[in-house]
From TrEMBL:
<comment type="similarity">
    <text>Belongs to the pyridoxal phosphate-binding protein YggS/PROSC family.</text>
</comment>
<comment type="function">
    <text>Pyridoxal 5'-phosphate (PLP)-binding protein, which is involved in PLP homeostasis.</text>
</comment>
<dbReference type="InterPro" id="IPR001608">
    <property type="entry name" value="Ala_racemase_N"/>
</dbReference>
<feature type="domain" description="Alanine racemase N-terminal">
    <location>
        <begin position="43"/>
        <end position="229"/>
    </location>
</feature>
<dbReference type="InterPro" id="IPR029066">
    <property type="entry name" value="PLP-binding_barrel"/>
</dbReference>
<keyword id="KW-0663">Pyridoxal phosphate</keyword>
<dbReference type="InterPro" id="IPR011078">
    <property type="entry name" value="PyrdxlP_homeostasis"/>
</dbReference>
<protein>
    <recommendedName>
        <fullName>Pyridoxal phosphate homeostasis protein</fullName>
    </recommendedName>
</protein>
<feature type="modified residue" description="N6-(pyridoxal phosphate)lysine">
    <location>
        <position position="36"/>
    </location>
</feature>
<dbReference type="Pfam" id="PF01168">
    <property type="entry name" value="Ala_racemase_N"/>
</dbReference>
Length: 243
């Protein structure tokens, strides 16, 4: 378990250096722990070490770990593919933000359910900035429109944008993805849409968090670099045909 603490310290240090190098205040950038496939007792180690923000990709995993994590204070986001038939379940588990809203019809279903439960939820609009077929997210050209449409739903509070960049070891190939998300943020801001906040830019993972911070990330989502390699390929979570 001490590997987790060590890894956490390395990540926090990397974030700090990236902020310093790009002239940003480290308090502007939050660390989100991507906990898919990680057992609750390992997640607890990170929470007890002072981390507060975690996120899962699948409802089944949220459900399995929910009870054991209740004893440690934390905030939960959802970063998996959001499907209409899972909305009701996701809302059972005290998720404060869904980072992966990418379709109007799903937003509509979400609004209906929230209205029924008489509550609100925060969302980020997920954008596919890499152009890869296997990645979820709205097309960059459609993003501003989607924000405007979702903004009409009174129980859904838009807080910003999320992207999974190009999966590449070459950071200079990933950078344009993050720049694209930033430019969409600026476009949305220029339109001054009522009720829409563009405060959060959720981008950057284990391999590319420095690049993301340089390009304006406010949330970096880190799994592997803290908890170790997963046994499932990421395509298990990201590929439409397997989700
Ligand atoms: C798994 C996952 C991450 C974390 O990826 P790592 O490479 O393990 O750091 C970030 N975002 C999403 C949406 C994920 O599914």
């Amino acid at each position: 378990m001490s590997d987790i603490i060590n890894n956490l310290n390395i990540i926090l240090r990397r974030m700090e250096v990236a902020c310093r190098d790009s002239g940003r205040d480290p308090n502007e950038v939050k660390l989100l722990l991507a906990t898919k496939t990680v057992p609750a007792d390992r997640i607890k180690v990170a929470l007890e070490a002072g981390q507060t923000l975690i996120a899962e990709n699948k409802v089944q995993e949220i459900k399995e770990k929910y009870e054991s994590l209740q004893l440690v204070p934390h905030t939960s986001h959802f970063i998996g593919h959001l499907q209409s038939n899972k909305i009701k379940d996701i809302l059972k588990y005290n998720i404060t933000c869904i980072q992966s809203l990418d379709r109007l019809d799903v937003a509509e279903k979400l609004q209906q359910r929230l209205e029924y439960e008489n509550r609100k939820i925060e969302v980020l609009i997920q954008v596919n900035t890499s152009g890869e077929q296997s990645k979820f997210g709205t097309h960059p050209d459609q993003a501003v429109n989607l924000v405007r449409e979702v903004a009409q739903f009174k129980n859904i509070e838009i807080k910003g944008l999320m992207t999974i960049g190009l999966f590449s070891a070459e950071t200079e190939k990933v950078r344009p993805c993050f720049q694209l998300l930033k430019s969409i943020q600026q476009e949305v801001l220029a339109q001054n849409i009522a009720g829409v906040s563009m405060q959060e830019l959720s981008m950057g993972m284990s391999g590319d968090l420095e690049t993301a911070i340089q390009e304006g990330a406010t949330i970096v989502r880190v799994g592997t670099a803290i908890f170790g390699q997963r046994i499932y390929a990421d395509s298990y979570y990201w590929d439409e045909t397997k989700a």
